[in-house]
Amino acid sequence: MSEAMQAPAPRLVSASQSERSEIIFPADSNPLGNLFGGRLMQFIDLVGALTASRHSHAIPVTVSMDHLDFVAPVRVGDILILKASVNRAFNTSMEVGVKCMVEEPRGNILRHVSSAYLTFVALDPLGNRVPVPQVIPETNHQKRRFEDAGRRREMRSAEVMRKKQLRATLPPEWHV
Fold first, then answer.
1. Whole-model pTM above 0.70?
2. Mean of the pLDDT values across residues 56-79?
3. What pairing do the DSSP bridges indicate for beta strands 59-70 and 109-123?
């Protein structure tokens, strides 16, 4: 790796954690008064990108969002809180975990509503991939997420290869 491409010094998980809060309005909801899943995905992507940017000090581009679980509905008027952390960094990519909760205003109780894992790639202003700092997990929870991220990466890589091989065998009229 050239001097310009050397990975930056490792960073603590806590150095790049991000949080975002939203009040859910009727324009964000379906006819039942529940937050649109796509709008929640947008919020997740935004807080994840902020965390990836803080960690890498580069421009983050979303490569994938997976393991997105909708655990419970988010309703109009709810206060949605999204918390994001870099679970693990690889060469130019990072896995960011996002946990979404609703704050119950009358008891200050948090209710889990969704979780997701996103992969971001760090780019320079010209769109070239750049090395990212490795992650230093501090707590047992962060260490578990670090290990789990490695397993998820292996599964994602295998699935990407499987799809690539499948596309190579499809005839031009596959979509018909």
1. yes
2. 94
3. antiparallel
